[in-house]
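Throughout our pipeline, every protein is held as a single compact record rather than as scattered files. Nothing more is needed to write down the fold, since each code stands for a local backbone conformation. The record that follows is passed on verbatim for readers who wish to inspect the format.
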Amino acid sequence: MHPSRAGRPPQFNRATVVLEAARLFWQRGYSGTSTRELSTALTLSTSSIYAAFGSKAGLFEEAVRTYAERYRVIYQDACAQPDFSDTLDQLFRRSIEEFTQPDSGHPGCLVSSAAMTDSPETIDTRAYLDDLYASNQRLLHKRIDQAQDDGQVPKGTDPATLAASLQTLWHGLSVQSNQGLGRNELLRLADLVVSALPGGRASTTS
């Protein structure tokens, strides 16, 4: 007998639970998703959810962090490309593919939805996203500096302004995905804007 095991939540696959919770949050938003609905969708008791994640807000934060880290990797991989035009192409193409996963059952980008959640319970999640966005923008700024040194971006370009412009485009595309714009439309929009930016394919091939 192991008395210490009494009252423990049943064993479950945490990654699967977080995925299912993320889908529900995507579909209904944080405030529109009740703990009872989560319990039903996850086939876990409310007490088990609280034991594993602390609260609904804790589950929401873990779901957001899980998916947000995918974008950190996308930025890192894109900025590792030796050609800056490939950096831009990979950054937006892979991000848009993530926004529009056909088999995931989610409408758009959970990260941009989470950033707009106005519940006081999600302050920690929004602070985490602010830090992530700032980190991604610093990475872009550093990559633009290097591209200028390599002659891939005109010397007269302000790296901070270009990095901010790229971030603005990224956020706009993520929001548009939440509004139902499809993958092909998002890719065409990204290609049109990027081609007009310093270091985009139009400027590097001309």
Remarks:
- Residues 1-9, 202-206 have pLDDT under 50 and may be disordered.
- The chain has ten helices and no strands.
- Residues 28 and 34 are 9 Å apart (CA to CA).
- The longest helix spans residues 123-149.
